[in-house]
Amino acid sequence: MPKASSSESLPRTRSGVAVGPREQNAPKKGRRLDLFRFVPFRLNRLAAEVSAALASEYQERYGLDIPEWRVLATLGFRNEACSAQYVADCTRTHKSTISRAVTALMERHLVERVENEKDRREFRLRMTRKGDALYEQLIPRLLRREQEILSCLSAREQKDLAAMLGKIEQSLDLVQTSREADAKQAY
Amino acid sequence: MPKASSSESLPRTRSGVAVGPREQNAPKKGRRLDLFRFVPFRLNRLAAEVSAALASEYQERYGLDIPEWRVLATLGFRNEACSAQYVADCTRTHKSTISRAVTALMERHLVERVENEKDRREFRLRMTRKGDALYEQLIPRLLRREQEILSCLSAREQKDLAAMLGKIEQSLDLVQTSREADAKQAY
DNA sequence: CTAAGATAGTCCCACTTGCAACTATCTAAA
DNA sequence: TTTAGATAGTTGCAAGTGGGACTATCTTAG
After folding, report:
1. Residue B136 CB neighbours (<10 A)
2. Which of A2, B19, B57, B181 is 20 to 30 Å from A148 by CA-CA measure?
């Protein structure tokens, strides 16, 4: 008898009826929604699955979680010291999450930080040689994985997909983030 | 002086250098990875953003969280009683999460459940009239939202996008889930 | 019939993450 | 200069979530 308290007090249909009791009713008048055709749901599921596929690379092999990987990816790509806030803006990750990721990366000596003379509130983050080495190892693996995942699409389709993602991102104002962040950076 | 303990013990570059200290090094030899062109990252970010856009509908207006919404969506679409396990399989959500969602929905009398005579371990879930009414209100809103989000794409592009998502899902074995769940259901 | 293993569902625990408060610092305006 | 408000970063706290243990039930093999 699971959940004795709440379930007992809820309305119970008389038992004996195995099939759903909706048959008497007319078929739904309103539109129904097929989850499997619903793009938001599909995106969620797909993103989760793709993340899981990549996690085996950076998580199992290198002990990085997603926020940590995002910090490295940002530092590695920009190839220039930038602030934690900048990483947060770029990756759309909460600053507290980035803060914890940076702490972990510093403890592993993969990242170091330098006080910014111009603004002593912030720190310039950059990879250590060790972090750099890890990055150099990791990137090809991830790119290969990405290609594996997309290999079910033709080159043309891959391009189209990227373009369509871009359009949606733009219409959702997801793209400006990087530009804004760059603007705010003001080196 | 934040993080007195760990940060002090970490290597610190001599201050005074405002620009990144990587300039001396040769530009990276290995491939770099642009997060903004990296599909897994883009999917993650996009999914999060789209979810947030929809959350304003079912969360703020109807007090539903994502797992609860998924339960309703599954029940509403199949228009037939089904088990919590089935919902979990379909939506690729952990069964404990579905269990909690069902409990919450039952407390709000949006969903009820009937013992299955054939298999007394499981319960047949179905929406109450109240849940049905909410569903009927919610669906058009969500479909409208989806259309708004996709409105930056032409009809042709929307179709193509759906097809490409389908291909990727298939190659990741995300699609079989519904079929398998149907098979397991065995009404 | 019995025993071993599978399955549905619930719940405890640990982990992650976002929120919000807090400190330190910077900026702008009086 | 002083003060009010913004910003960078850290941390405590609470909510959500998955893993796994657990119970009850079913199934299958002996």
Report:
1. 15
2. B181
